[in-house]
Amino acid sequence: MQLNIIVIDDSPMQLLMSSKLIQQDGRLNLLGAFTNPFLGLRAVNTMDVDIVLLDVEMPEIDGFSLKKMFKKQVEVIMNSTKPIFEFRAYSQGAVDFINKPLSAKRLDSSVSKISEKITFFRDQERVRTAIAS
Question: Which fold has domain 3-132?
Answer without folding.
Answer: Rossmann fold (3.40.50)
